[in-house]
Records
---
Amino acid sequence: MDKLDLTVPRGSVFGFLGPNGSGKTTTIRMLLGLVAPTEGEYSVLGLPLAQALPKVGAVVEGPAFYPYLSGAANLMRFDAADPAAHGATARRRVADALERVGLSAAAGKRYRNYSLGMRQRLAIAAALLGPRELLVLDEPTNGLDPQGTREVRTLVKEIAAEGTTVFVSSHLLAEVEQMCTHAAIMRTGKLVAQGTIASLSGGLVTRIKVETPDPDDAARVLTSLGLADVRADGREVTAELGGHAPERINAALVGEGVSVRGLAVVRPSLEDVFVGLTGEGFDVDA
Amino acid sequence: MSTPEDTAAGAGTLTDTTGPRRTPGLVPVTETLRTVERHEPAPEPPATAGPGTRPVRAFWRLLGSELGLTFRRPRNLVMLAVLGVVPVIVGVALRTFGGADDDMTGLVQDVAGNSLMLTFVSFSFLVLLLMPVAVSVVAGDSVAGEAGGGTLRYLLAAPAGRTRLLAVKYLNAVVYAYAVTAVVALSALVTGLVLFPAGDVTLLSGTTATLADGLVRIAISVGYVGAGMAALAAVALALSVFTEVSIGAIAGTVVLVIVCQVLRAIPELGSIAPYLLPTRFTNFDAVLRSPIDVAALRDGLLTFGAYIVLFGSIAWARFSGKDITS
């Protein structure tokens, strides 16, 4: 890990991306005081760690609970460990947290008998026991079925809407793209980029792709319309879209007698950014 | 941290950086760092410090949770039950077969003559193996079990505080150690009173003590044996901090107890015997002297204290700086 400065705007849903082994989990462990940095200092929410941690809820490396206790008893146990939590309000807060993640009906059931999705939700409930300013979720949808993933996504959006900052680590790009407002990308212990999702993928240009049997004519038309970087490749012609309206381009092509078989606007995905920054795979530096 | 306005401004800055000469999509870290500097986080109000009793109450609450976990766990209750049954079996056996035999040993004769002696006989049977096993299971599992199950990281992120958590874990083990001792003593006392005549107690010194005096001596021996078990719990806790596999810490402690007894059995090593815990465990019979052998009890308690300080420090030193990666 080297000089990691993460700017997580308050109230944002922050995606923390990186290939396996790039230091995401280590960063989160450090953030929670589970491991100590070899050297240097850090602060969370602008506070020393001990003061900040009660305001931070976390799901780290998957759920872990006492299998022989019920869901509610497990939450009571973790609530008791928080010196800032009041015992008098514990029952109500546990009930609220379970309600929040839709586990009220299973509150008295032993954790042993929970399904993976329920376990994941219980872990999120544990992170929501108190008023939190920051919620750290490490791979929150790992091992969940599509319904479970959607549930988690909705929950995260709700929590963020209430003003809690949510910090989600993931290697699932589609998930981050759907859930997050901001993101940072790690590579081998270093931060390579961070910013809003739009600014991260906005750096790559949107292109228009035309499928046609007359690529040369199409290229000529696109150039005459003022599109930059026109490339013809077999039966496909692509160009930077710039500020042009795709429907006008289509009209112009047809007007010039070019047969258009397909026309598509290709927006860069976060995956393109991610792969561009972290390598195609099998070449991650040791 | 930034306010919503700051966020908007920050986003704007970031978007501006994606000019034509930039590598697509890449926002240099230096750029965002500058953004951070521009938006120096507003100082937070200090964490709401409640009244001074708050940390104390939170500590008791965590200890209560820990005790609830220990004393609701079937495994721990079964061990207590087994230890409670042993004095009954010993008592019934002595009652059934003891009288028929002519060459009874001194202790058996004592038990047959007085109900209170069964407590001391039970201690001498259990204090060298079964009670240490029960205490080792609870203390050895305390940290290693949480680490192995992954719950340790959630407790520490809560944040339970490392020193605080270790203190709670140790106090919990001490309570269990005393529970084990008390269960054995009570079971033996009740069995003794039911099966054997009550009355004056004949001590090892040959003099007799009243029933009330005998009960006081039992209470002192419970305090002493419990302290010995608490010292063993410190050893088990120290081992527990070094591993994520609780059976390792438990077996390690039990093996240590057995090794100590082997060492005690070697006459050439007699000089180290006083420093071994099992030697001191059996010294509870000092309460059966007349007057009570206070020096032996004191030396035993000092040894227990030394073990608690030494192994408590080892556990703390290791645990406070440990990276929790399980």
---
Amino acid sequence: MKIFRHLTIAALAVTALAAPAAAHRQWLLPSATVLSGNSDWVTVDAAVSNDLFYFEHQPLRLDNLVVIGPDGQPVEPTNKSTGRYRSTFDVQLTQPGTYRIASVNAGLFASWKEGGQPKRWRGTPEKFAAEVPADAEGLTVSQMAGRVETFVTTKAPSSGALKATGKGLEMVPVTHPNDIVAGEAATFQLLIDGAPAKDIEVEVVPGGIRYRDKLNDMKMKTGADGRFSVTWPTPGMYWIEASTQDAKTSVPQAKQRRLTYVATLEVMSQ
Amino acid sequence: MRVAATFLLTGLAAAPAAAADLTVSVEIPRLAVAEYHKPYVAMWIEKPDQSVAANLAVWYDFDMKDNEGTKWLRDLRTWWRKAGRELSFPVDGLTGATRAPGSHKQSFGAARLRPLTPGKYNLVVEAAREVGGREIVRVPFDWPARARTTAGARGTSELGAIALDIKP
């Protein structure tokens, strides 16, 4: 897995670590979520932006894409490309059912000073001791686990791709994410490391921000069972975000683990 | 939507008639557009809670290479969600070719109507046209009919007159 490879800290990492007030929105935007063909393709845009769903800030890096097919097995995305404002890639839907398309980021971030110069490091808990000096001056370490995802279905919706990984903050369906329509309530459950994530604030923002003056976002909190419900006012693409932090870090130098979750869901007309 | 219906009161204990026959007439309007494609059309019978009681027909490009015509079935959005996505295409007795503008009749016999228990239903006709719009028309009816019953409704964009003729 290349997930933990050493990277220059990219825009995404900075965004993921930034204080909530400064956060841009990360998202995946599929060309369709409800399909009926035998081997249809979807093309997916991936970006970090202020307004939804417009490319105006940074591309989402495609280093950590994880696409799971209806049989629960990984599917290789193709035609990956990263431009100035957005990345894009394709997924061919060769099996009927539901695909989970995600960018999954996890790791440790360290910064310190060496001879007066700032140093930055990103990597895995396993490499931390070897690569970050134990006596580093002014060392600050943080841990993050982030998932940005969307779902697409060809033919009938299925659940094989939707099983929880048990890592970080994630969403599992009560209502299938490709079976949602305007005017009907949909319910989902948030999990942290596989256990219900209670009392987490969830923000739901409809796309198309550029053509209206109000954000029209909805905010709700998960119950004790980690569940939350949304009744969609109109058809369209919606951005769902939740974040929290805890102290379940992998190394003692990191005091806090920041967990973020984003999903893009398409709400159809009845 | 205006519904012209002539119903006879049916007894509460009415049994489904063995030889009943239901004929649907669908008018596809002639449209003055630069790029015209014959619409995909689906028709089914729904219960008052909008769940599906019986699938009747879907007219689409079923004879394309590699079954490519199924790609656009999802544009019949309501039908696809409620009655289409679980099926394997083409479906015997359900699949038909797209129709040109004009009025088209299709009859459904006792075998197709067997799932209908006595009660209230809607005939639902949905049309979706490539580079065009989508429209749904519903025609309420009671089942079974004690005497010959006709009912109808009219679409305003992608569908014209929809008529239902039930012979007990």
